[in-house]
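Appendix B. Raw example, untouched.
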Amino acid sequence: MLENIAHMDANDHRSEDAALVRAFVRRHFSWRGSLRMHGASLGLDLLRAPINVALAPVFLFVRIAALVLSRLRLVRAGRWLASRRILLRSDASRALERALCDDLLERRTWRGNTDPAIPARHVEDYLGIRSAVAEIATTLLVLIAGLLVFRAATPGVLSLAPLVSERAAFNAAVAGFPLGESLGRAWYGLFPADQSVWFVAGVGITLVVAGSIVTTFAGVVADPLQALLGVHQRRLLRLLARIDAAEGDDPAIAREHLLARMADVSDAAAALLRMLRP
């Protein structure tokens, strides 16, 4: 009898969570809700974005180090290292954090653990995962652009920058060719235009800044698509379950972070292969 009651209570809790999550996703991850939330990024977030892109590999390294410490039974040191904030908190993330607390966590029946540090830690992890998803979305956009424009796989700025600088140098040289553009295209098709190191570096920096801005606003498109596919719902339900069970005390690494860094490795590998190609 008691088991049946407990089972009914668990089903009621799951139904309550599912209803709250559906309402939250409709309000904040629809096209309108996502635009409203990302409106907070029109400010200092544009400066924080390139810094966070540069700090993302450091974040993953710290999480891996924390995981290693925990596996070596240095649990306290691992938890301390995992709790270090590496990425700069964006205004959009603050807006989402307030929404999570006001429109989801405070509206559900509180059960399980009541330690306020537990929800804060898991909400922080959730926000980090969203940032990694935005990076993955940007990587896909860069990859598609490279395939369409240059017919080459460009999983990031490192592999895209040489192609863009080469195209820009070619167009500039052809435009200034004394015998006309037609002969200029033929000439520079045989003899590539010279590119200074500073020119290539400038193109690369420009692309990094542009890519970070795209990452900042990638959620405007990515959020509604993830809501449509049920990704947001599953991720939020997992967040609530982890808070209730106080799981995740060990510094685990979400697969989204690994995928984002795998894209970086692929980008570096593609750039290296291009440099080594005769």
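End of appendix B.
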